Amino acid sequence: MASHRICAYPLGIAFMTASKTLFLFDLDGTLIDTAPTLAMAVNLTRQDEGLAPLPVDDLRPMASQGAPGLLRVGFNIDPHHETFMERRARFLAHYRAHITEGTRLFPEIDALLEGLKARSMKVGIVTNKSVALTTPLLDALALNDRFDVVLGFDSPNCAMKPSPLSIEEALRLTNTAPEAALYAGDDRRDIQAAHNAQVLAVAAKWGYALSYEDWNADCWAEHPLALLDWVDQLNTGTNRKTPQML
User: Fold this and answer.
1) Do the Cβ atoms of 21 and 122 come closer than 8 Å?
2) Which of 86, 99, 57 minimizes the C-alpha distance to 71?
């Protein structure tokens, strides 16, 4: 494996040895696979204009980047384009109407959450999704009672990642010090937000991004249950080298 810097914001050995009591997660691409539903919403927006649907595989890598990334692939526009806001509104309307169609937990996530609970860890969600979309989705998937804290970018005292504000608010609400927390996400902004909040971060390789190695994550996980190994390594003091593949 090629060598990489430990992280963009070196946190020091204390962060590697402090007991971990909170695990925070991104939502789309980390806990749940929403790519099929988001691709459907893009293609329904294209259908509004008489355009042919795009393959889900073309849209999947953009699923963690929200409307800007999805509409860039779907219509070759960016947020500054004169049609962006109107198309975004239609895209979101289609998404709300079909919010659980095709969306599912990634394999092993249920067992991961149970494993963290068995280790007496708190768990939470910090997402760039709005609360208005996050809450009904978690309700439909029977997930709301699995988390100690759930924050969208528009929750009080929060902001879009890579801002650290949402993670810092989750730490405040759970009375957790940064060195006692971990964060998992499948987008570069997740790693940046965690490090900006002085929290160790793992790249979820089962998510949507096509490459991870230059994100300066503290480690990379091939599958969700590997995160339990990381927690155990950190809490028993056996993890001394980063980044590493789990």
Assistant:
1) yes
2) 86
Burial of 82 (0-12, 13-18, 19+ CB in 10 A): exposed
Query: What letter represents residue 195's amino acid?
Result: H
pTM, two decimals, is 0.89
CA distance 36 to 34: 6
Backbone angles phi, psi at 32, to 5 degrees: -125, 145
Query: Which of these is catalytic: 26, 33, 186, 190?
Result: 26
Q: 26 catalytic, yes or no?
A: yes
Least confident span in 18-22, 41-45, 208-212: 208-212
Q: Tell me the DSSP string of 190-203.
A: HHHHHHHTT-EEEE
- Distances from the Cα of 44 to the Cαs of 28, 91, 137, 246, in angstroms? 20, 8, 20, 38
Is 70 exceeded by the pLDDT of residue 15?
no
